[in-house]
Model the fold of this input.
Amino acid sequence: MAIEIKQLHPLFVGEVSGVDLSQPFCDGLAQDIVAALDKYGVLVFHDQKITDQQQVAFSRLFGPIETTRYLLRPGEPLRLDKHFADVSNMDAHNRVVARDDRKWMGILGNRLWHTDSSFKQISATYSLLSAHVVTPTGGETEFADMRAAYDALSLEMKERIENLVAEHSIFNSREKLGFTDFTPEERAGTPPVAQPMVRVHPGSGRKSLYIASHAGLIYGMSVPEARMLLLDLIEHATQHQFVYTHKWRVGDLLMWDNRCNMHRARDFDSSLPRDMRRTTVCDTANDKRPAAKRAAA
Done:
């Protein structure tokens, strides 16, 4: 069955019908999904009653999948398979974590505007997030269309940032919240990487901003100037006209292209369970070396 797509926002985001991800994948499905993502940037699949294995199988249609950062933390118990980013508020025993739990600190970091894995040597193309348990209110996810945000910049700003390169680090974004509890293995395993601030999307050919909370430095610029420019660009890109807010329901699966979107989670009642499971596809065509090594090369 051919997929059908209804646009949910004037600029981007498509609601997909005609796809049941619990069933065998038909020929051409991956190509249709990629074409839709090139156009809409974010896709919404409702009523997907899928297992973790089915989510992993669907994700692998689009490339190799990341493994969780928690593998760099010796002895850290995992609630889910290593191919999932567990963005729930539940521990390895399916209990709601306390507000002073290390995992809760990581969840708070997801409320910053960000792009998944922009801080990794191999960044991400697509993320796929499935909702297993949601709270009655709150917990929305917001997306910002970075293509439209780039298009709306002044000519002077476009010329200013055209060739700028920012340094991205998970420690930069988490330290904004005062969170510094990382092991030596985590710090050694996720060194900073260099990312251009303007990218041309390979599927659509459109230019897009590539910034967000993991970016903390801009090469050739003082730290205060760089951070002010990044703040100005994030403020510009997250204006109401560029943002879609998704209200989750159980069975939703959202898939988005990290190369042309930022996103952030919103607040919810932390005493209630919220079970969200993300798989992330590696952008092997855009392999990055750590910024420090790039500078020395």
